[in-house]
Amino acid sequence: MKKSKGISTETLYKIFIYVALITLAVTIIVPVVWVFLASIKENQEFYGNPWTLPSGINLQNFIEAFNEARMGDYLLNSVIVTSLALLFLLVLALPAAYVLSRFEFKGSKWLNSFVKAGLFINVSYITVPIFLMLLGWDQSLRTVFADGFFLNNLVILALIYAVTALPFTIFLLSSYFETLPSDFEEAANIDGAGYYRTMFSIMLPMAKPSIIIVVLFNFLLFWNEYILALTLIPGDQKTLPVGLLNLLAAERAAVNYGPMYAGMVIVMLPTLILYIIVQKRLTQGMTVGGVKG
Hints:
By secondary structure, this protein is mainly alpha-helical. The chain has one domain: MetI-like (MetI-like fold). 71% of the residues lie in helices and 0% in strands. The protein contains 13 helices and no strands. Helix 3 (71-102) crosses helix 7. The N and C termini lie far apart (59 Å). Residues 289-293 have low confidence and may be disordered.
């Protein structure tokens, strides 16, 4: 009698990986699809089977979210804050990462250690000190001017976002710059290019995959940030996460679920669109290092 061969360990491992990945994909995709479908349902449809498909496309939920709940204003505020924060971050982090990774000077090791130490500081731990510092500056300004400047200011919030994200961004960019060979810099030096020309014309274009990763990760961080936005913008200029929480509380109390899910879609949609646009470059940036030579 012929013995049947058992399943190899490698096959079992592949099956386990596929099952795990499919399970993970389902647990992520199903809730997202459900929220999108719920955002176009009429209110009475929520009292039946929650998995029932909507009877039609009810865009009134989005109109209510934009007009009555001011989600359009909050969306604009988030776009302004996130764009400015990314601009400030790149302007500060790119030169700092390039210098710290490519040059050795007195104090460079101390600066690198200082930046790495910042990776262990959680923003939520320093929110209150930041608020008290800005409040003190505003109180000092009010002795001279009528209004303060540092609280309820979207530009200041964007600057704080950028500064708090500097350690991770500099660390990530520095790690990528270190993989790039020095041949390009030597060739640029022979051609008469200075440090600034070499950085902007040669090194930064080569680091584009890493810059895309930085932009995507920090976009998600800034776009979804809640604690700093709630604390430093106590007035009406709320960002989307803060406005969404107010919308959820109001619509849940009014038993009006459609605009609530429409608000969730408004928050999620930009991040999904950005990920779809940069997905290919993001994968390349995670897998491709410097050119060997």
